[in-house]
Amino acid sequence: MFRLGILISGRGSNMLALADAVVEGRIPNAEIAVVISDHEDAPGLERAMERGIEAVAIERRGRTREEHEREIIAQLKSRAVDLVCLAGYMRLLSPCFIEAFRNRILNIHPSLLPAFPGLEAQRQAIEHGVKFSGCTVHFVDEMLDGGPIIVQRVVPVLDTDTPDALSARILVEEHKAYAEAVALVASGEFEIEGRRVRLRPA
Ligand code: GRF
After folding, report:
1. Of 109, 128, 138, 175, which is the active-site residue?
2. From CA 157, how far away is CA 103, in angstroms rounded?
3. β-strand pairing of 149-156 with 132-139
4. How far apart are CA 118 and CA 121, in angstroms?
5. How many angstroms separate the CA atoms of 18 and 128, rounded?
């Protein structure tokens, strides 16, 4: 079994979309080993538990980033996690975390990277006036929202869009994109060459 560890900070809709994809067999031979939040009041924790998924809070408050990450890494390793999925996890990972799971951490970002990295990507897209935006699932490296891209999905930006309206349209695609990307990585049928993630030729 390919074991997923999912890190969240909030509502956890992408985490739930991954859980659905596992149950429905869209991510074959995989299971969610643990969901970890950096706040105990993240609504996603309860959603995970309702589904019988082990969910733990590892509070950041009162600790250095290093201490906090060391505990998260220990929890992931103790459950033999193969792939770490950031799903609305609102903290930057330090190089030591990235090294501990090199090419085994994914993130989802609500824009077509490399456009609009960082916070409020949907607002950035509207203010820039782009006509299309979307979402990106990528490997995490030391650059903010910068690692090799696995899957992107596109949505139109409408003249009437508010950040909330665009976010809702993108979120529908995020849920599909994340499951597709995790299924590809779990299958092992890809190669990374420079920045390019490609299907392994048959
Ligand atoms: C998503 O828009 C994701 O792209 C971004 O944070 C949001 C998390 O939403 N990184 P959810 O907690 O998965 O519902």
Report:
1. 109
2. 32
3. antiparallel
4. 6
5. 31
Backbone φ and ψ for 70, nearest 5 degrees, come out as: -60, -40
Q: How do strand 2-8 and strand 55-57 relate by DSSP bridges? A: unpaired
Instruction: Characterize the bridge pairing of strands 105-109 and 132-139.
Output: antiparallel
90 DSSP 8-state letter: -
In the annotation, is 109 catalytic? yes
Q: What band does 202 get if pLDDT is binned at 50, 70 and 90?
A: confident
> What is the per-residue burial (b if ≥16 Cβ within 10 Å, else e) of 157-181?
beeebeeeebbebbbebbbebbbbb
Exposure of 146 in the CB half-sphere (CA atoms within 13 A): 8
Q: Rg for the chain (alpha carbons), in Å?
A: 16
Read off the pLDDT of residues 97-116 as tens digits, 9 standing for 90 and up: 999 999 999 999 999 999 99
Q: Are 182 and 188 in contact (CB under 8 A)?
A: no
Q: Which residues line ligand 1 (CB under 6 A)?
A: 8, 10-14, 44, 87-88, 108-110, 171, 174
**pTM reported for the whole predicted model:** 0.97
